[in-house]
């Protein structure tokens, strides 16, 4: 049982480049979300989805784009990377929106130069 | 705006030395309070959900309690394998997001 799988684990980008962080879950969870974790800031919600075709913004959505074409996958796109987007990104899922019992991936560490 | 403050930022204990971690919160209508454990280089792992003041949950050496303004994570006779960062989060009425604290980094020395 793989749970929540994120790729890549590490990535270095130059300012202005674009990239996609991949997230897949095999638990048939309806709710998926992306958080970023920064020192002194805690985990902050970027975007979330309550099912295929449905996405919404979280606390810090600017500079990021998401889509949800299948139940399993929830990619996060950085449109034009900036140094302020250097962070560790976590994908998390749960069986429904209102439960706080989230299953997290192992994270993707992104550095923007 | 929901707010979560955890203290202390870091805590060092000797093996067997019991202590408590604090999570103070401000939320307009608490839907739930959650504790997670995070090991270095890993994603957070769910530990407990608390829904109302007076509620308690236990798991091995950990016990979580909840009041109207704060939650405590009590660690009884900790072992080195309990070393991790412990995160507290609250969920408000909309249920659409969790607001996390910055965490308490616990180190248990043998």
The chain-level mean pLDDT of chain A equals: 95
User: Strand share of the residues of chain A?
Assistant: over 45%
The helix count of chain A comes to: 0
Radius of gyration of chain A: 13 Å
Mean pLDDT of chain B: 96
Give the SSE order of chain A as H and E letters.
Answer: EEEEEEEEEEE
**Terminal residue distance of chain B:** 41 Å
Please describe the topology of this protein.
The complex is a heterodimer of chains A (113) and B (110).
Chain A: E1 4-7, E2 10-13, E3 19-25, E4 31-38, E5 42-51, E6 54-57, E7 64-66, E8 76-78, E9 87-94, E10 103-104, E11 108-112
Parallel strand pairs in A: 2-11
Antiparallel strand pairs in A: 1-3, 3-8, 4-5, 4-9, 5-6, 7-8, 9-10, 9-11
Chain B: E1 3-7, E2 10-14, E3 19-26, E4 32-38, E5 45-50, E6 56-59, E7 62-66, E8 70-75, E9 84-91, E10 98-100, E11 104-109
Parallel strand pairs in B: 2-11
Antiparallel strand pairs in B: 1-3, 3-8, 4-5, 4-9, 6-7, 7-8, 9-10, 9-11
Structural account:
The complex is a heterodimer of chains A (113) and B (110). Chain A is an all-beta fold and 113 residues long. In chain A, 0% of the residues lie in helices and 51% in strands. Chain A has no helices and eleven strands. In chain A, the strands form two sheets. In chain A, strands 2, 4, 5, 6, 9, 10 and 11 form a seven-stranded mixed beta sheet that branches. The radius of gyration of chain A is 13 Å and the shape is globular. The termini of chain A are far apart. The model of chain A has no long low-confidence stretch (mean pLDDT 95). Chain B is mainly beta. In chain B, strands 2, 4, 5, 9, 10 and 11 form a six-stranded mixed beta sheet that branches. The termini of chain B are far apart. Classes of the chains: A mainly beta (113), B mainly beta (110). The interface between A and B is medium-sized, with 25 and 22 residues.
Defining traits:
heterodimer, A: 113 residues, mainly beta, 7-stranded mixed β-sheet, 4-stranded antiparallel β-sheet, 0% helix, B: 110 residues, 5-stranded antiparallel β-sheet, globular
């Amino acid at each position: 049982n793989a749970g929540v799988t994120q790729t890549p684990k590490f990535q270095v980008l130059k300012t202005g480049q674009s990239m996609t962080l991949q997230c897949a879950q095999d638990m048939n969870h309806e709710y998926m979300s992306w958080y970023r974790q920064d020192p002194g800031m805690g985990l902050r919600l970027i975007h979330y989805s309550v099912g295929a075709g449905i996405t919404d913004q979280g606390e810090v959505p600017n500079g990021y784009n998401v889509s949800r074409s299948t139940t399993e996958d929830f990619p996060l796109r950085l449109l034009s990377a900036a140094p302020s987007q250097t962070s560790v990104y976590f994908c998390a899922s749960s069986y429904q929106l209102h439960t706080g019992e989230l299953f997290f991936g192992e994270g993707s560490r992104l550095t923007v130069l | 705006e929901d707010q979560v403050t955890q203290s202390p930022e870091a805590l060092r204990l000797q093996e067997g030395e019991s202590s408590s971690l604090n999570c103070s919160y401000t939320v307009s209508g608490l839907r739930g309070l959650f504790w997670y454990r995070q090991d270095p280089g890993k994603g957070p792992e769910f530990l407990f959900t608390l829904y109302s003041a007076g509620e308690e949950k236990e798991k091995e050496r950990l016990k979580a309690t909840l009041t109207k303004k704060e939650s405590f994570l009590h660690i009884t006779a900790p072992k080195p394998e309990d070393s991790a960062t412990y995160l507290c989060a609250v969920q408000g009425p909309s249920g659409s997001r969790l607001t996390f604290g910055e965490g308490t980094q616990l180190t248990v020395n043998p």
